[in-house]
Design a protein that fits this description.
The protein is mainly beta and 477 residues long. The chain has five helices and 32 strands. The strands form five sheets. The protein has a 15-stranded mixed sheet that branches. The protein has a ten-stranded mixed sheet with strand order 22-23-24-31-30-29-28-27-26-25. A hairpin with a 2-residue loop joins strand 19 and strand 20.
């Protein structure tokens, strides 16, 4: 159906169009006779729902990935660093409609999402011209059939390998989210309804608030299937001569996969793990990556390190020379369940201890000075003579670099800002801390989905820690 870079991959074969990605989003049906007032009410209602339901989603959802809500004023980028959607950001829109929909095996004929008995739509939108973070409120996106007075909104969207829904009352085991922040050109598949049955080969207006982004043709298909993590549009025709859909390569390194197979049998936590090749620690010659795992029903931690030869999981040799040096430590990842979503979120603001704290309290006796970190991001410099700090915010994330020198802190922060301008941290609240020391860039990250706090760390490299966090996906995917 659509060619997608990295996050969503569309492949056509044997009459099947598959969109593998993440779904999220939706709004009640919109009245285009007064779009401004109708969308304002919709946005207010949906955002309230999202805040209350996103936390509860972790208990049943395969928690989600990638970047923060720009409307959270406490940690959001400044207005100057986040731009709204415009027609210049739309490269192409491909629309598929269907007569029925299936969500996790529950069939709706015709589809009954939040819009009632209406025709389902998949709109794969290719975004471009993103020089600074682009904020998209899914509740403000519309499809308008010019021949009808009714408009349609989106209930789900697929992005960066995961599925989201806009309203917690929608069917399906998906995390609730109504905002996307894009930092690079990407394709997002939005799923919803048109507000009225759509004739084949007609054109629909793709809109943001009351602005028309463009008019695009519609191709009708037979069905849309929502599986957890993907959307499949099944065509009514078949082509026996079409080549088979190629197999998807493994997302996990052997050490990570072995660790997660051990974990998955011993806990009920929704699992996350770093994927390859997005996260691939630098090779260490003839050394091999090995792992140790500690797991319980409410926690799991995977420790990664280099070994002098291939070793099985939890090998006693990992605790014996020559495999005990700190130089061979890579880092790790894991998760812990808390009693409530509130208790989990509180963990983000509790100063961490140890050599790689994900968050520390900025100096209370200093106001800090603004510092330009590039790419439209402004941070705050606390120039303490004994322990300098640079702190900044990207979406719902708070990031810090600490050390004894202000210039080294600023330079390290600039490197991270440059990388995160084209990569997405998990799309939720999180903290990311770098401690610059003589023996490495000790770095940790924490983020929360529902009542679960997820973590990852790298003992030597802040950039590798960021890559690990960016690459985290639900396991087994």
């Amino acid at each position: 159906m659509v060619n997608v870079k990295r996050e969503l991959k569309g492949s056509i074969g044997a009459g099947v169009i598959v969109i593998a990605g993440t779904l999220s989003g939706c709004a009640p049906s919109h009245d285009l006779s007064n779009p401004a007032s109708g969308l304002a009410n919709t946005a207010k209602t949906t955002n309230t729902t999202n805040r209350t339901s996103a936390a509860g989603a972790a208990s049943g959802a395969s928690a989600a990935s990638h970047f923060a809500n720009p409307e959270q004023t406490t940690t959001a980028p400044s207005v100057s660093t986040v731009t709204p959607l415009s027609a210049a950001n739309i490269r192409n829109v491909e629309i598929q409609s269907a007569a029925s929909v299936s969500v996790n095996g529950s069939n709706f004929h015709p589809a009954q999402l939040t819009h009632g008995r209406l025709e389902p739509i998949v709109a794969a939108v290719q975004f471009q011209n993103i020089s600074v973070p682009l904020a998209i409120d899914v509740t403000h996106l519309l499809l308008n059939n010019p021949s009808s007075s009714a408009g349609g909104g989106f209930d789900y969207f697929a992005y960066n390998g995961q599925t989201f829904k806009v309203n917690h009352s929608l069917p399906g085991n998906f995390t609730v989210r109504d905002t996307i922040v894009l930092r690079q050109s990407a394709t997002v598949s939005f799923v919803g309804t048109t507000g009225t049955p759509t004739p084949a080969h007609s054109k629909l207006q793709f809109m943001y608030r009351n602005s028309i982004m463009g008019s695009f043709p519609v191709t009708n298909e037979d069905a849309i299937n929502f599986n957890n993590g993907s959307v499949t549009v099944i065509s009514g025709s078949s082509d026996a001569s079409a080549p088979p859909i190629p197999a998807t390569p493994s997302m996990w390194s052997s050490a990570v996969k072995e660790s997660m197979q051990y974990v998955i049998r011993r806990t009920t936590i929704p699992l996350f793990a770093p994927t390859s090749p997005i996260y691939a620690p630098a090779s260490r010659g003839t050394q091999k990556m090995a792992a140790q795992v500690v797991v319980s029903p409410t926690t799991y931690n995977v420790h990664l390190q280099w070994a002098n030869k291939t070793l099985p999981l939890n090998s006693p040799a990992l605790n014996q020379p020559p495999n005990t040096g700190l130089a061979d430590v890579i880092g790790g990842f894991g998760a812990k369940v808390y009693a409530t979503p509130q208790a989990a979120e509180e963990q983000l603001s509790i100063p961490s201890r140890g050599i790689d704290p994900a968050y520390i309290q900025p100096p209370r006796n200093q106001s800090g000075a603004p510092v330009n970190l590039g790419h439209g991001i402004e941070g705050t410099l606390y120039a303490s003579p004994s322990d300098a700090m640079v702190q900044w915010h990207e979406g719902e994330w708070t990031l810090q670099v600490t050390g004894t020198g202000t210039q080294s802190d600023i330079q390290e922060a600039e490197k991270l800002v440059t990388y995160l301008n084209t990569a997405l941290l998990p799309e939720t609240k999180g903290v990311f801390g770098v401690n610059l020391t003589g023996d490495g860039e000790h770095t940790s990250a924490k983020w929360v989905f529902g009542n679960v706090v997820y973590t990852c760390s790298d003992y030597h490299s802040a950039l590798q820690a960021a890559k690990m966090a960016v690459s985290m996906r639900t396991y087994p995917g």
